[in-house]
Amino acid sequence: EVHYPRQINVAEELVDRHVREGQGNNVAVYFEDQTISYAELQEAINRMGNTLLDLGVEPGDRVVVRFPNRPEAVVSCLAAQKIGAVALPSMKLLRAAELEHIINNAEATTVVVYDDLLEEVENALPNLETVEDVVVADRNGIDHNHHDYDELLDDASADLDAYETERDDLALMLYTSGTTGEPKGAIHTHQNLLASADTYARYCLEPTEEDVFGGNPPLPFAYGYGDLVTFPLRFGASTSLVEDATPGDLLAAIDSHGISVLCSIPTAFNQILSKYPDGPEEYDVSSLRVGASAGEPLTPTTFESFKDEYGIDLLDGIGTTEMLHIFISHRHDEEIDPSATGFPVPGYECKIVDPETGEECDRGEAGLLAVRGPTGIEYWNRPEKQANAVRDNWSYPGDIFVQREDGRFEYKSRNDDLIISSGYNIPGPEVEAVIEEHDSVGEVAVVGSPDEERGAIVKAFVVAADGVSPEDNLIEEIQNHVKDTLAPYKYPREVEFVHELPRTETGKIRRIELRKREEE
Ligand code: 3SK
Predict the structure, then answer these.
(1) Long-range residue pairs from 285-288, CB within 8 A, at least 24 positions apart, any chain
(2) What pTM does this model have?
(3) Left if phi > 0, otherwise alpha if psi is -120 to 50, otherwise beta: which for 458?
(4) Which residue's CA is the nearest one to ligand 1's atom 10?
(5) Whose C-alpha lies nearest to ligand 1, atom 4?
(6) Which of 25, 194, 279, 327 lies at a CB distance of 3.0 to 4.6 Å from 348, suitable for a disulfide?
(7) CB 341 within 8 A of CB 317
(8) Which of 457, 452, 445, 431 is nearest to 507 (CA)?
(9) 226 C-alpha to ligand 1 centroid (Å)
(10) DSSP-assigned beta bridge partners for residue 391
(11) pLDDT digits (tens, 9 = 90+) for 196-238
């Protein structure tokens, strides 16, 4: 179990504490050819914290942080937390309509944004009800008439004491699309952030000050935020940030930044293996010590191939944005069986229950996974979702698992219509609603179709509108319509025209039948 004093501030714990304890010169962040020490990171956070205070940000206010994996994202999130505000990192691919919903729902007051990602914020701005200030980090010379990040930081004081937050005060808010298509805010406290490091990271990744964490999950994805911000800084280690890293960029960063803890998703590990067969000869990868894999299940083949080529274990794990990080994982003090997901992370308990009766299942029986530990599901202003997701103090992430006779947990599927593709959570109904808007579409059902590389792809079954003949160019039109309306990763990679959709007696679409058809 992990316990924290009542008064604690995550930014103070992750950065100031190391400076105070004499580690100010250690490298906190590697980015391109720069190194940023803990003392330099502290100074930037203090300047940003004072900037936010000058703009009128108050404890508890939500601050949207919209950047690729760059140091400014770390600085902005930790600065918000240091002054007692709540960091709300935004996925860079979100379009104006999605941003509008999230920012209005969170009632955010301030947006800090990379200039390259400003356009969708500007498109949303006329409809943003609570935003008072937009701060733009001008890195690409894009014209704007908002506050300038560098000017504000230059003018701000470099001294700042952390606000005296309590352990249960909110520190981080991450939006998850869930299954209904309406993004929900998952909220996390100062204590939750520290607990994810002090359980999963401590016992599964076993970090030391010498480690360099690196990988390509985006920081606004809970997985990336943990692996590339909270964990390295909790242990006085370093993080290697790479903007929009391709597999080749990751190999280069292992070589140049000396990454020892490599965090990514199976799609990226597979791409490293397939696109860079000479990776270990071309790059110096001798710094690698361990890998973390999440976002989708890791196959035994990928585990074995990576071990053969790179000499490290990829520790598969499952977490969710709502739970903040991984709660079932492999770890080195248990024999790794790559056909399972692993054991509950120390500090967490897991059980499998019958979805109908709520009774605990026997070992070997598939059922709904329930989790209890130092983090749990908590939604922002969604009492009906909350009541369904947390019962008797157990959180229900919505996955079907089996607990094997040997105690290991094995992932089976999602319990709902969420499609997990290359680590992205894509709600089928949201994509359906957009496809249905197309004039040539009569009816549509969207499901996940198994895919070797991506785990699953989005597949749309479409009944053409009356009088429309399903030509090939209609597929492209539908795909482009989704790409133009939603984050492009949500587009259906496959579109199949059918005469009718399978329905229940009451007229509901039987997606389960379509999913089964895809699995055959
Ligand atoms: O997808 C996962 O397994 C995951 C892991 C850690 C944090 C967040 C997520 C969604």
Answers:
(1) 285/251, 285/254, 285/255, 285/310, 287/212, 287/254, 287/258, 287/259, 287/260, 288/254, 288/259, 288/260, 288/262, 288/312
(2) 0.87
(3) beta
(4) 320
(5) 319
(6) 327
(7) yes
(8) 445
(9) 10
(10) 394
(11) 999 999 999 999 999 999 999 999 999 999 999 999 999 999 9
